[in-house]
Design goal:
The protein is α+β, with helices and mostly antiparallel strands. It has helices at about 50, 55-70, 80-90, 145-155, 175-180, 215-240, 260-265, 335-340; strands spanning about 15, 25-30, 70-80, 95-100, 110-115, 120-125, 185-195, 195-210, 245-250, 290, 305, 310, 315, 325-330, 355-360. α4 (about 145-155) crosses α6 (about 215-240) and α6 runs parallel beside α7.
Length: about 375
């Protein structure tokens, strides 16, 4: 791999079909930009040290974001929000909402949106530590939860590196569910009116699910809680604004295609399999599809390190007659074994951005 600085790679949107627009179109990108607090040479010995320095990497990330030209940017691992990203993105025409992780964690999730394309009308945050409140004092996780964990161990055992080992192993007592479920993971939801299309609301959610494959039951509990909160938020938006809405859920789900978290989200049902969920799980299912999986197929990988290369990032949407993907952000064709892992001078994060252009047909 070359150690010579190069221009960051700028992916383009590729049309799924050559048709004339029939409704409003907007582009949404999801990107784990790699929190600088996790960028240490010991975590990324395969990466040129120069590309890991904040001054160079921040410029590269900003260049990628600007060139994407997306109407919505769902970013994970944002840890310089106030000092860098908020102001710089404002100068590029983006407003934003942000939630920092709880506890001592310094990164979080942000939704950046072009203020001349969309208007924020409602927002809520998701704190997965709220799952602790659903566990009665002194109880332990059910056998079903522990079985969920064991069932996923074999499939996920290889997921041991990359972004999922950038945090210290401070998980605490695994027997105590109050400790087990307190992972300081978060998400954020916003309801937006698109410019000139005020009879249709787009709900955008952005989240970052817990990383550890040996705690697959915790990841699944978070996915179920996410579905529950999405259903409640969608109902609130519908009641308050009395118009049609589309739902898009993006993020780093730290889960590979076909595993329990993925299948739970595809089903859209927090009761699809046994596990711990918070109040609100009685909400009607919201079936979801992934934009890539339902069209061209899931990417070969979105996270790339020498020890782990696979897909962890997704853009889900609730399929309906009023919205569909019309183009996808291209992903690089390089062989991970040739690259040696990310980040590098062409790709400033260990994840790749994914993106979708949606078209809205109804409710305009």
């Amino acid at each position: 791999m070359s150690t010579t600085p190069a221009t960051p790679h700028h992916p383009k949107f590729v049309s799924l079909e050559e048709t004339e627009p029939q409704g409003a179109r907007f582009r949404l990108v999801s990107y784990n930009i790699l929190a600088q607090v996790y960028v240490k040479s010991s975590n990324f010995p395969h990466s040129p040290s120069a590309c890991l320095k904040w001054k160079a990497r921040s410029k590269a990330v900003l260049a990628v974001l600007k060139n994407l030209g997306a109407d919505f940017l769902c970013l994970q691992e944002v840890d310089e929000y106030e000092s860098f990203y908020k102001g710089n993105m404002e100068s590029c025409g983006y407003s934003s909402i942000y939630i920092q992780r709880t506890g001592q964690k310094r990164d979080g999730c942000g939704i950046f949106f072009k203020h001349d394309s969309a208007e924020l009308i409602l927002q809520e945050t998701i704190d997965y530590n709220d799952l602790v409140n659903s566990i009665q004092h002194g109880t332990v996780l059910s056998d079903d939860i522990q079985n969920d964990e064991q069932d996923s161990k074999n499939k996920d055992a290889k997921i041991k590196s990359g972004s999922m080992q950038k945090v210290p192993q401070d998980r605490g007592d695994p027997i105590d569910p109050r400790v087990r479920l307190k992972r300081d993971c978060v998400g954020i939801m916003g309801a937006f009116k698109l410019k000139d299309y005020h009879n249709h609301i787009v709900i955008v959610a952005n989240t970052h699910i817990y990383w550890d494959p040996e705690w697959a039951d915790v990841k699944l509990a978070q996915a179920k809680y996410l579905l529950s909160r999405l259903a409640q938020f969608k109902a609130l938006v519908s009641d308050r604004f009395e118009c049609a809405s589309s739902l898009i859920v993006a993020g780093d789900f730290n889960s590979t295609p076909g595993d329990k978290v993925y299948e739970c989200l595809i089903s859209g049902n927090p009761l699809a399999s046994s596990g711990t969920v918070a109040e609100g799980s009685e909400d009607a299912p919201i079936p979801l599809r992934t934009a890539y999986g339902s069209t061209s197929g899931e990417p070969k990988f979105t996270n790339c390190t020498p020890d782990f290369t696979d897909t962890l990032d997704y853009i889900f949407f609730s399929p309906s007659e009023s919205i569909k993907p019309v183009s996808l952000l291209e992903l690089p064709e390089f062989d991970p074994s040739d690259v040696g892992g990310l980040p590098n001078f062409s790709h400033p994060s260990d994840h790749l951005p994914i993106g979708v252009e949606f078209e809205i047909f109804g409710g305009l």
